[in-house]
Amino acid sequence: MFIFGGSLFGAMLLLPLYYQQLRGASPLEAGLLLAPQGVGAIIGTLFVGRILDRTGATRIIMLIGLTLAVAGTVPFAIAGPSTPIMLLALALVVRGVGLTASLLPSITATYATLPKTEYAAATTGTRILQQIGGSLGTAVLAVILQRGSFPAAFWTAIGITAAASAGAVALPGRRGK
After folding, report:
1. Would you state the torsion angle of the CA atoms of residues 4, 71, 86, 45, taken in this order, to the nearest 10 degrees?
2. Is 8 exposed, middle or buried (0-12, 13-18, 19+ CB in 10 A)?
3. Rounded distance, CA 143 to CA 164, Å?
4. What is the rounded CA–CA span in Å between residue 59 and residue 98?
């Protein structure tokens, strides 16, 4: 959850700034250009939950999700001023699906090991970890962006997302195992 927060919230700092500073979008336009990531998250929620319920394959689904999140971020690290907006929108859809596919299995695995009486504490704990990770990830990426460039900051965000794979490997291969 900590690393996931760093990846999600850190990149959410970079994406609107990328659109505003490098593509000349207004704040409203930049916000609207992020909508495809939300569409991807909705798609991910619809399908990933069903697949997870059917297979229980928490580890593999999370690894696929992290791979998709990385794949959806790479175009921003290599994009130039003439990169088509539609390509970046498609990348955000992929990123949204990937973030959902990486978040749902970790939450499911957490709750599967707990009695229902512990759910409230687990929810609080996971949100705290996610928020602290998000704060740290955002700060790190802001410093890298200030001292470097958008590609350097996006590659760092990609590295943070890839680092979450270590946590995915620690998940049970199937729910309850």
Report:
1. -50
2. buried
3. 21
4. 14
The residue with tokens 């690894």 is 63
* Domain coverage including residue 98: 2-170
Distance CA 96, CA 74 (A): 13
- On whether residue 177 sits in a domain, the answer given is no
CATH code for position 115: 1.20.1250.20
With b for 16 or more beta-carbon neighbours within 10 A and e for fewer, the 27-62 pattern comes to: eeebeebbebbeebbebbbeebeebbeeebbbbebb
Residue 175's pLDDT is what?
52
Separation of alpha carbons 140 and 13, rounded Å: 11
The low-confidence residues of the chain, meaning pLDDT below 70, are 1-2, 4, 170-177
- Give residue 170's pLDDT: 67
Six-digit token string for 109? 């695995």
Greatest Cα pair distance, the chain, in angstroms, is 54
| 176 domain residue, yes or no | no
How many separate domains does the chain show?
A: 1
User: Using CA atoms, how far apart are residues 157 and 99, in angstroms rounded to an integer?
Assistant: 13
Q: What is the pLDDT of residue 98?
A: 95
